[in-house]
Amino acid sequence: MAIAFNMFAMTFFLIALSVTGHPEMAADVGVIQGALLAAFMAFSANARNLILASKTDIEIKEQFGFRVVLLLPLAVVVFFLSNTMVESTIVVTVMLILRRCAEWMAELHISEREKYGDMPYAFRFILFQFVSLTLLIASPLINGGQDFILALGIWAATPILQSMPFFIRMVKSSSLPSMRSFLPHLGSSWAIAISTYIFRVLIILMAGRVVGGMLISAYAIGGMLNAVYTYAIGPSQALKAKSSSNAVPDALRLTVIILLAVGFCVIISAFTLDWIDETKLFIQTIGFSFMGGGLMILAQHHRIHMLQILKISAFVPDVLSNVLLIATIPFIYFLLGVESLSALFFWSGILAYVFYALSPAITHWTDRNQDRENGYKLTRLHHHSRQAWLLFLMFIPVFFQLSGRIFNSPVMLFDAKGMLFDLPLPIAAIVCFVAIALLVNFDRVRLSVSVLFVVFTCMLLTSVIAFNLADVEQNVGKFILLMQYILPLFALVLGQSYVQPENSSYRFEAIFLYILAVVVPLQLLATLLQGHNILTPYLYVISIYQHLDYVPVIFVSGYLLALYSEFDEPSLRKVLLWLSPFMGVYVIYSDSLGAITLLFVGGTLAPFVLSKLNTSKLAIGFVFVSLLVAFIARPDSNLQGVTASIEQAGINNETEMDGRLKHWELYTKGITEDFPTFLFGHSQQPDQLEVRSAYNYYLGLIYNFGFMALIPLGSLIIFTVIKLYNKRKDPALSSSSLALAGLVLFFLLIENSFNVSLRQPYPGIIIFFIWGVLLSRLSEAGNGNLKLSKKMDVQ
C-alpha cells in the first residue's frame, strides 16, 4: 500500500479531476504525468524488482547514486516536454515535477524497508499520503480553490518526510553506479516510459483536450488494479514466493476473471443504457480498460517472474509490445474513428499478453531440458512447419484494402490519392507481426530490437522537437509518417529469429521460389491475354500493387536467393530451371532497370560462385537464354506502351534520372537550410503535388526526421559491412550466404539510393527480413557457433 500511494497518487488526483468536472485540467495533468513517466520511468531500470531480488545492499546504493545524478536533468527535460503541450500555470507544472522527484527517491527507501519488513514505516507513509491527497482533492471545494497551490505543495513534499536519515546514510555509503549491472533494464524502462508519454500525446492530439483528458482518466480507472499489481503487489508477491514456479496463483486468476467479467458488463451497459455521447464513451472506455487490465495482470505476472526469479531482462518484449502499440494507434483512429480509442487499453493488454505469456521465448524456457531425441525433435519440426507457413503468407504478393476488399484493380499504376481506406496493403503487414509473436527468440534478436527501439526513439525525439501545438493535423500526419518508416523495420526482428530448417523445402528461399513459380507465369499469361505490351498488375482475382516500381526487384532477389542456395537440391533445381525463362521475360516486360541488372549480374556470377556444382554452367546458360528470348520477344513499342499506360492511369510518374536529380536537389536544399533542420528534420513533408517522393530513402528520412534518425540505421549498415569484410576470406561462407550478403548490400547501398523501398510495406518487410537473416548468420559465425552452410540448423 505504501508503494501504491507513492506511485499512483498522481493518478488518483487525475481521476478526481475528471469525475469532479475538471476535464481540461485532467488532460494537462495527464500529459505532465506522461512526460514524468517518460523521463523518470525511463531511468527507473526496474529498480524495485532488482532491489527486492538482491541479497545485498549494493543494488540500492548503485540505484541511489544513479538517481541523484539524474534528478535535476530529468526535471528540466520534463518541464520542457510539458510546457509545449499544456495550458496549466508554471507553478502547477513545477509542483507536479517536484512531487515525482520525491516519489522517485522515496521508491528506493520504501523498497529497502519492505525488504526488511519495516511495517511501522509503511503505516506512517500511508497516513501522510492519504491525508495530503485528501486535502489536495478537496482544495478546489474549500475557500474557492485559493488554497489549492498550498495543498499541492504539501502533497508534493510528503513522500520524503521520513527519508532524510535514509538519504544521509546513502550519501555516506554510495559510490558511482556501475551501468553494466542494470543497463539492459534501462532499455526496458525506456521503452515503457516513452511509449506511455507518446500514447497520451496521441490521444490528446486525435481526440482533443476535453475528450482526451476524459479518455486518459478512464484508462487510469480501468487499469488501476493492473498498475497496483505491476508496481506494488506483484514484486512483493514474487519476493515472498517459496518456489520458482511460473504458475498463476488462484487468487490472481480469479481477479483476472472478475476484471474481464466486470469490464464486459460495463461495456454492455454503455451500449444498452441511454447515456449522452461523452458519458457513453467514458463508460465504454472504463469497461475496455478493465478487460485490458485483466490481461495486463497476467502479462505482468510473467514479466515479474522473468525479472526476479529467472533474472532475465524484459527488454525485448517490452520494446516489441510498446512500439507496436504506438505504431498502430493512428491507423486504428483513422480506420474506426474516435470511439475506437476507447479500446486502446484493451489492445495494449492483448499485445502485452501475447509477448509475455504466449511467446515461445517464454513458454519454451522449460523445454530446453527435455529429451533431444524425442520431444525436442518434434517441437523443432513443428516450429519449422509453422515458420514455413507464416513465411509463405508473408511473401505472397496479395494486397487488401481497409475498406474490406482484396485489391484487384485493373489500373496499370494505381494511386490511392491519399485515401487510407483505398491504399493497398500487403497481408505481409499483418503476418509479419503474427510471425514475430509466434517465432521470436529473445536471445537472438537483441541487436535488431535495439536498433528498432533507438530508431523509434530518435524519430519520436525529432518529432517532439518539431512539434507545432497550433497545427494538430500536421502533428498527426508526422506521426503517421513515422509509423510508415517503423512498421517495416519489425521484419528485421523476424529475420534474426529465423531458424534454418534441415529440410530444404521449409527454407525461406524455397518458399519464395514456390510463390514465384506460380505468380510469375500467371502474371505473364494475364499480360498476354489482356493485350498489354507491359507487365499487367491484374491477375483477375488479385492485383499486385507497385508491380513496376518495387515488386520486380524483390521477385528477382527471391529467385537469385533460391538459385544460389537450393540449386544442389534435385527437386528445387527443376523448378529453378523451369522458371528461368519466365523470369527473363518477366523482367523485360516489367521494364525495371534494377530487376534486369540484378538478374543479369546474378546469372553472370552464378558459375563462379556455384563452381563446385557440375550443373552451374547449365544455370548460367538458362539465365542468358532467358534474357535473350525476352529481348527478342519484347515488342519495339514497349517503352511507348509504358508511357501510354501511365498517361491513361492519369499519373505523372516522374522516374527518369532528370526527375530524380530535381527531387534530390529539392530535398537536399531543404535538409541544409540550417543546422537544427539538418539535425531534427522538418515539421511537415514537402508539397506532395510538387514532390511525390525523395526517390532516396535516406534523403527522405533526414528531411522528415533529421540526421539523428539516420544514425542508428546507418550504424547498423556500417556494422553489417564491417562484419562482411571481416568474413570475406572465411571458407565457411556458402553460396547462400554470399548471395544473401550481396543482395542486402544491393538494397541498402544502391536500390534505396534511387527509391524508397525500405519504407514501402511489401518490399520493406522483405528487405528487412533478409537483412535480419544475414545479421543472424554473421552473429552466429562471429561467435564460432555456426558455419555458414546451407544445411546449418541453428535451433
Automatic annotation (TrEMBL):
Keyword Membrane: yes
UniProt keyword Endoplasmic reticulum present: no
Keywords in alphabetical order: Membrane, Transmembrane, Transmembrane helix
Transmembrane regions: 31-52, 64-82, 122-142, 148-168, 189-208, 214-233, 254-275, 281-299, 319-338, 344-366, 387-407, 419-440, 447-467, 479-499, 511-532, 538-564, 618-635, 701-725, 732-750, 762-779
Protein name per its UniProtKB record: Uncharacterized protein
